[in-house]
């Protein structure tokens, strides 16, 4: 999401502390209810059936991804208070949950948190129940980066949990389904403030499973997922990103967010050039 200025959510008298007084978030339920694991895990099982069994799903570099979900790594993430931030391209309404449910943990307590548009996914009480149970976190478009959803995702990362984000800010409208640029700087804010483990991946084929404008997924389509390299946001990472001559402390936070966003863009573009048919003959 882009920072559009100093606009702030409308105040209300009641609501969850995580809402921070935002009336737009009245249907978001940050705390799980008894039914939340049922909804989340049932959706994951259906997603595994539709994409994992009824379509042709393949992976490259899956061992790098799986390592991030070993018991040892998960325990270390909790100890270090350093979460996992995965990010990818976005071409289909069902990239989540169809794709992400096939990538790893689906148990409610370990499933990903994911940023979601507050109007489309939290516009009614019923939607709020369903998508809150799916560990979706509402982002208010046009409200800038200082808003409850981003604060909540940062908190989840600092607790060592898994967050996924589509940094394009929405489904790509590019004719050839390439990465839609520029990326939204929200990912840079998450990187800078949570200092997580970063894992980029790029997928191709979801645009055929659920083309824009369609409501039901197609079957017997081929989807390929290519994983990048895991990167830990430490001082050494910043030194490499900024150059030894640049002191991180002298830069404005928004400058750091922009640099981190550009790094994420470059990582996705590197994978895209290996995966996308557009680059096959180059």
Describe this structure in words.
By secondary structure, the chain is of the alpha/beta class. Helices cover about 40% and strands about 15% of the residues. The chain is built from eleven helices and eight strands. Strands 1, 2, 3, 4, 5, 6, 7 and 8 form an eight-stranded mixed β-sheet that branches. α1 (about 35-55) crosses α6, α7 packs parallel to α8 and α8 (about 185-195) crosses α11 (about 255-275).
Summarize the structure.
Helix content is 38%, strand content 14%. Helix 1 (36-53) crosses helix 6, helix 7 packs parallel to helix 8 (186-194) and helix 8 (186-194) packs across helix 11. It is built from eleven helices and eight strands.
What's the CATH topology name?
Answer: Glycerol-3-phosphate (1)-acyltransferase
Mean pLDDT: 92
Radius of gyration: 18 Å
| Major sheet attributes | 8 strands, mixed
Beta-strand segment tally: 8
Domain module tally: 1
Low-confidence stretches: 1-6
Elements, N to C (H/E) = HEHHEHEHHEHEHEHEEHH
Proportion in helices: 25-40%
Number of helices: 11
Strand content: 5-15%
- Give the overall form: globular
Please state the structural category. Answer: alpha/beta
Distance between the termini: 33 Å
CATH homologous superfamily designation? Glycerol-3-phosphate (1)-acyltransferase
CATH architecture: 3-Layer(aba) Sandwich
Specify the CATH class: Alpha Beta
